[in-house]
């Protein structure tokens, strides 16, 4: 098993650009390899799979960062009637409770969305969900790349093949000079390279602007945005929660979900305090997407 992992790892290293020194630790490597089990097709041939990098590390890779922004911007332009549109995929995560790809609730089931909060299914549900998001990003990055003509085309296609959805390490202590909350989520514009030169585009990571016909009746604004209200004390709290989860949960149910499976009644007081489900919610509340008010993934 381990040998298989190593082979896959070497392949990945040999083909997509290798990690900057210090970026990839053994744990990340194992995770990255495991991630390949949740395959999203990046359009590459020959089995090459890039790493899922922390967003600041991705930023260091000029071509992948560029195709990430261009692909993300295109992703958000896809018509909301399409199952692979940003609107429909974001709506899987929470409000508005629209049916994804016409997959209606079963008879007698509530139409309160697909999310599996307060269940041991939550972490595994969320991983498959992110794989779908990554797949949509890849398709759009590749579409952008394939529109490029001339000498530059190979470079863009290559970057799209290697691109994977980055993570944000919210538990990382910021450098004293850096903002606690990454500016890449709040800057109005981003500088990108296009075949016809450098240009500023509206930062696709900053907000989602609903089209008038898209249901956003769950909030009294036309746009969601990331909140800057993420401080050092939030980071310290999240680190403490994470440590408590990793060090005190004795069973997978305790580790994975807020729900108590020991028969205790529902209600906030009887929920498990430290687990992946709770940390996930906490991050949403702190960074926006309006998870703070209602459960929306926008
Ligand atoms: C992009 O925006 C920045 C900041 O407003 C500006 O300094 C820069 O000249 C712009 N670049 C281009 C290519 O438009
Ligand atoms: C979140 O929803 C509330 C309630 O509808 C709204 O007032 C607020 O502007 C929204 N915030 C963001 C960040 O979208
Ligand atoms: C949202 O956009 C509509 C037009 O589509 C406008 O009438 C309305 O005032 C906007 N709402 C807010 C809160 O800006
Ligand atoms: C920032 O977070 C604090 C709690 O940590 C909250 O009381 C406050 O309302 C938040 N401010 C904004 C602008 O969301």
Characterise this structure:
With 298 residues, the protein is mainly alpha-helical. Helices cover 41% and strands 6% of the residues. It is globular, with a radius of gyration of 20 Å. It has a two-stranded antiparallel sheet with strand order 1-2. Strands 3-4 form a two-stranded antiparallel ribbon. 28% of the residues are buried. It has 10 helices and 4 strands; from the N terminus they run H-H-H-H-H-H-H-E-E-E-E-H-H-H. It binds 2-acetamido-2-deoxy-beta-D-glucopyranose (4 copies). The site of one 2-acetamido-2-deoxy-beta-D-glucopyranose has 4 residues, from loops. The site of one 2-acetamido-2-deoxy-beta-D-glucopyranose has 2 residues, from loops.
Brief characterization of the structure:
This protein has 298 residues and is mainly α. It is built from ten helices and four strands.
Name the structural class.
Answer: mainly alpha
User: Any idea how many domains?
Assistant: 2
Cross-sheet strand order for the largest sheet: 1-2
Q: Please bin the fraction of helical residues.
A: 40-55%
Overall number of strands: 4
What Rg is obtained from the alpha carbons, in whole angstroms? 20 Å
Figure out the total of helices.
10
CATH topology of the largest domain: di-copper center containing domain from catechol oxidase
CATH architecture grouping of the largest domain: Orthogonal Bundle
Strand content: 5-15%
Query: What order do the helices and strands follow?
Result: HHHHHHHEEEEHHH
The bound ligands are:
2-acetamido-2-deoxy-beta-D-glucopyranose
- Shape by Cα distribution: globular
